[in-house]
From TrEMBL:
Species the sequence originates in: Xiamenia xianingshaonis
InterPro entries tied to this protein: Aminotransferase_I/II_large, NHTrfase_class1_PyrdxlP-BS, PyrdxlP-dep_Trfase, PyrdxlP-dep_Trfase_major, PyrdxlP-dep_Trfase_small
Listed EC numbers: 2.6.1.-
UniProt-recorded name of the protein: Aminotransferase
Superkingdom assignment: Bacteria
Pfam families listed in its UniProt record: Aminotran_1_2 (PF00155)
Enzyme class name: transferase
Keyword Transferase: yes
Length: 393
């Protein structure tokens, strides 16, 4: 007999993937330029030239070493380079043995949750939230507890998080810059969270881990993205190069267990154990070399900044309400009717593919991914206009 839970996961439609697949079909039927696909978060800028160069250079090195296994936690020199980058950039005393290289943030999160939770624990997520959190929380045998962000700032609602913490809570997942809303948590907001968590740890007599999911750290529009381990010691950072270096298909990222927490070495060992248990032998080796060589490489955010300006100015002129994004490449737009799915369905009639907010655990909004060609945004404006007008009739 197959495992029912796994069957359900395999069969369960992802609204984002479905919309993306629909877009491909539609493009084949009526032409690429007639469909405005804002569904998926695939970076639209190419990886930096340095990535290509490092890959080519590495291909000229000893193939036996290059294509062989690395130690499970990663190549020692790569872990040291990542730790050095964390020390130099954020001023926290990161050591190489607290860095564990992974196949992207997805693996980093699944591994970290498995490392610090027990079946039956509760894991807090901030809604709207990245849908795959539910999968990884469920796979760890834990229960997801949703706490809405503040509206319309979409900052953390610290009193609400406090109210949701119980004897069973072991992890709080935060994601800044945020998918889907583009919010970046302010230093003040994170400090308020840290003070509350420290107080609750005392009160409950058990550790509360903060899992900071950071694939969009490098993609911001002029705001500070405070480094969470410098604010709350019991932080586990799940980082990814998918968006920063435009390499989502290559799978490279890391877990950094803050050196500042007690039992940091023990937690790191549990991370290595969870990686082993989940079948991650080691992160892709060629990509570990790329990550180390490009660790200080700036992300190319210019195209996203241009798209962000075009989209927000265009939608504002048409009367749409949205959350001004400080980071990532998503715009959170208020649906023109309470039912986000119905709004997304209606948008399809105008060849606009917008992800309904139900996928992220809340109603009434859609997510517009603006990691697309600039012309897609320019050419989509008449469709957004017609969509709005269809509600005025
Ligand atoms: N977390 C968030 C919030 C994301 O948006 C994504 C990908 O879109 C991930 C994690 C997974 O990223 P990765 O490609 O690094 O596994």
């Amino acid at each position: 007999m197959i495992n029912e839970k796994m069957y359900e996961l395999g069969a369960e439609p992802s609204a984002i993937r479905e919309l993306f697949a629909y877009g491909m079909q539609r493009k084949a039927a009526i032409g690429d330029d007639k469909v405005f696909d804002f569904s998926i978060g695939n970076p639209s800028v190419p990886a930096p030239e340095k990535v290509r160069q490092v890959m080519l250079d590495m291909l000229d090195t000893d193939p036996v070493a290059l294509h062989g296994y690395s130690p499970a936690s990663g190549i020692p020199s790569v872990r040291e380079t990542v730790a050095r980058h964390i020390r130099d950039t954020y001023g926290v005393p990161a050591q190489a043995n607290q860095v564990y290289m992974t196949a992207g943030a997805a693996a980093a999160i699944a591994i970290s949750l498995a490392a610090v939770t027990h079946p039956g624990d509760e894991v807090i997520v901030i809604s709207p939230f990245f849908p795959e959190y539910s999968t990884w929380i469920g796979a760890s045998g834990c229960t997801r507890v949703e706490v809405p962000a503040q509206v319309p700032s979409f900052q953390l609602d610290v009193p609400a998080i406090e109210a949701a913490i119980t004897q069973k809570t072991s992890v709080i997942i935060i994601n800044s810059p945020n998918n889907p809303v583009g919010a970046v948590y302010t230093r003040e907001n994170l400090e308020e969270l840290a003070a509350m968590l420290a107080r609750k740890e005392e009160e409950l007599g058990r550790p509360l881990f903060l899992l900071s999911d950071e694939p969009y750290r490098a993609i911001t529009y002029g705001v500070e993205v405070p480094y969470v381990p410098a604010i709350y010691p019991r932080t586990i950072v799940c980082y990814s190069y998918s968006k920063a270096l435009s390499l989502p298909g290559e799978r490279i990222g890391y877990v950094y267990v803050s050196d500042l927490m007690d039992n940091a070495a023990e937690v790191s060992t549990a991370v290595a154990g969870a990686g082993r248990a989940l079948g991650y032998i080691c992160a892709p080796v060629l990509l570990q070399h790329v990550a180390a060589a490009c660790v200080d490489e700036p992300s190319d955010v210019e195209a996203y900044a241009t798209n962000r300006a075009l989209l927000t100015e265009g939608l504002s002129a048409l009367g749409y309400e949205y959350v001004e994004p400080d980071g990532a490449f998503y715009l959170w737009v208020r649906a023109l009717e309470p039912d986000a799915q119905a709004f997304s369905d209606r948008a399809k009639q105008f060849e606009l593919l917008l992800v309904p907010s139900d996928s992220f655990g809340v109603g009434g909004w859609v997510r517009v991914s603006y990691c697309v060609a600039r012309e897609t945004i320019e050419n989509a404006m008449p469709a957004f206009k017609a969509l709005a007008e269809s509600y005025a009739e």
